[in-house]
């Protein structure tokens, strides 16, 4: 069977395949394969335009697999994804495998789509040329320069100077404190409300430290149940639990020599906290089902929007783990506490939205900025970003954004307050219920099973309420599976 615009994604991580599927949905038909054998079965029966292959897979590297593909199925355009920008295996095998492009992790959705579009266009060009293979064949020196440029670009994106703020902002003091954290190889705990930029600060700390250039990996601890979280972080042996069909390398081992960012650490269970404490104390991990531990050298940077002091006092978070994680605590203030940051942050967001939407909106009218500064932004920078996207989408011309494009709660806060004052008891209850569900969706990274469990609802009941309130599941960090 022939399928137009078909992309084969080869990755042993199910979540990675699904994340790419969501990004390419609507423009490409995505077929997932979780190992080389599955991928070869697909290639034998489907007309595939583009192959997007992960470099690190159990049993065989992506480059090795793509070398065989080039010999047997030369038509598809081949792309490789890796979190190791200086991988010697990739550099050495790039020409032999006929790899068109090297994509680094963490990939950006818009850039990934652009790369796949280019590869698809190249595939069509091959066909129009009578089937002759048209490949990008970079020399090793050229590839090394591209790798160096990518590494340099990543460092610039995550340096402290890239954190947008006003000169008088309290963020300046936060950055000054975080710079000190780069000087010492100790654990850092970043606290603050959701959407304040805790991960961006963590990346800046890593890229300013002596571990810069080594892996920096991210895991949202609130998005997975204990067993899957353990497997994700510590790895597992084949057969360790139902669904463990092969050996898996954990993120602590992937991050060896570098750093790991554990987001929403306050959502972890007491039993998991015990296991994480052992890793921090002993400097070793034990994959699920393994007989022997493995030594790792990883700096831990964690974050939470909870008050861990209160969680410790309530017995929900281990005191000894808290002290291990919070050797160097940093608090990021909410956007409501730094209105002076809204103009420069909004300007940066608008620049990015213009690029993504292919627009040229020059800025904001003064009254628009004043109203944005008067709003308290409970969703912080994430909410501000969504609002600016909406304003650009609603604007008909590339001219400064007017205040009438703002959402009602921002443009007319007094009307929203009056409506709240006159609302019925039922309105208050529904508003509270909606807010709680939204908070749980954000905290659990869109994992439906976990959200339902935390709220004491069935999955069916939760989905019904989400539909009623117009709430959507937005999984981050590559997307979290919800068990369907």
Descriptive overview:
This protein has helices spanning about 15-25, 35-45, 60-70, 90-95, 110-130, 140-155, 170-180, 200-205, 225-235, 250-255, 270-280, 310-315, 320-325, 340-355, 365-375, 380-395, 410, 415-420, 425-445, 450-455, 460-470; strands spanning about 5-10, 30-35, 50-55, 75-80, 100-105, 190, 215-220, 260-265, 285, 295, 300-305, 330. It is of the alpha/beta class and about 475 residues long. It has 4 domains: about 5-155, 3-Layer(aba) Sandwich (Rossmann fold), CATH 3.40.50; about 160-335, 3-Layer(aba) Sandwich (Rossmann fold), CATH 3.40.50; about 335-420, Orthogonal Bundle (Helicase, Ruva Protein, domain 3), CATH 1.10.8.60; about 425-470, Arc Repressor Mutant, subunit A, CATH 1.10.10.
């Amino acid at each position: 069977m022939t399928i137009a615009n078909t992309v084969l994604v080869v990755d042993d991580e199910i979540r990675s395949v699904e994340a790419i599927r969501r990004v390419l949905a609507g423009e490409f038909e995505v077929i997932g394969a979780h190992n080389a054998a599955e991928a070869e079965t697909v290639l034998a029966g489907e007309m595939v335009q583009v192959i997007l292959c992960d470099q690190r897979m159990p049993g065989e590297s992506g480059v090795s697999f793509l070398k065989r593909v080039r010999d047997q199925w030369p038509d598809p355009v081949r792309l490789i994804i890796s979190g190791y920008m200086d991988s010697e295996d990739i550099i050495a095998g790039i020409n032999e495998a006929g790899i068109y492009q090297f994509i680094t992790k963490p990939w950006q959705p818009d850039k990934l789509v652009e790369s796949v579009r280019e590869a698809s266009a190249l595939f069509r060009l091959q066909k129009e040329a009578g089937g002759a293979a048209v490949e990008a064949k970079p020399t090793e020196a050229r590839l090394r320069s591209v790798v160096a440029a990518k590494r340099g670009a990543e460092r610039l994106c995550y340096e402290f100077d890239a954190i947008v703020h006003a000169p008088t902002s309290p963020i300046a003091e936060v950055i000054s404190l975080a710079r000190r954290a780069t000087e010492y190889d100790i654990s850092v705990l970043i606290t603050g409300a959701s959407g304040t930029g805790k991960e961006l600060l963590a990346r800046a700390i890593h890229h300013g430290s002596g571990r810069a250039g080594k892996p920096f990996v991210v895991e949202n601890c609130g998005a997975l149940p204990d067993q899957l979280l353990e497997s994700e972080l510590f790895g597992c042996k084949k057969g360790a639990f139902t669904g463990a069909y092969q050996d898996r390398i954990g993120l602590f081992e992937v991050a060896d020599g570098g750093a790991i960012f554990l987001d929403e650490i306050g959502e972890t269970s007491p039993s998991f906290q015990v296991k994480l404490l052992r890793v921090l104390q002993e400097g070793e991990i034990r994959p699920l089902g393994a007989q022997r531990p493995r030594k790792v050298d990883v700096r831990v940077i964690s974050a939470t929007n909870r008050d861990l002091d209160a969680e410790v006092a309530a017995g929900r978070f281990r005191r000894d783990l808290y002290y291990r994680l919070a050797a160097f605590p940093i608090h990021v203030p909410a956007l409501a506490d730094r209105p002076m940051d809204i103009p420069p942050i909004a300007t940066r967001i608008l620049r990015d939205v213009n690029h993504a939407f292919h627009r040229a909106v020059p800025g904001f009218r003064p009254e628009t900025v004043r109203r944005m500064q008067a709003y308290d932004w409970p969703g912080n920078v994430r909410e501000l970003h969504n609002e600016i996207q909406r304003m650009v989408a609603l604007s008909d011309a590339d001219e400064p954004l007017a205040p009438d494009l703002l959402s009602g709660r921002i443009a007319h806060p007094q009307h929203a307050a009056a409506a709240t004052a006159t609302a019925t008891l039922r309105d208050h209850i529904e508003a509270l219920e909606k807010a709680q569900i939204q908070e749980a969706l954000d905290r659990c990274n869109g994992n439906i099973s976990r959200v339902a469990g935390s709220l004491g609802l069935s999955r069916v009941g939760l989905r019904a309420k989400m539909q009623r309130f117009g709430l959507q599941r937005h999984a981050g960090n590559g997307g979290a599976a919800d068990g369907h």
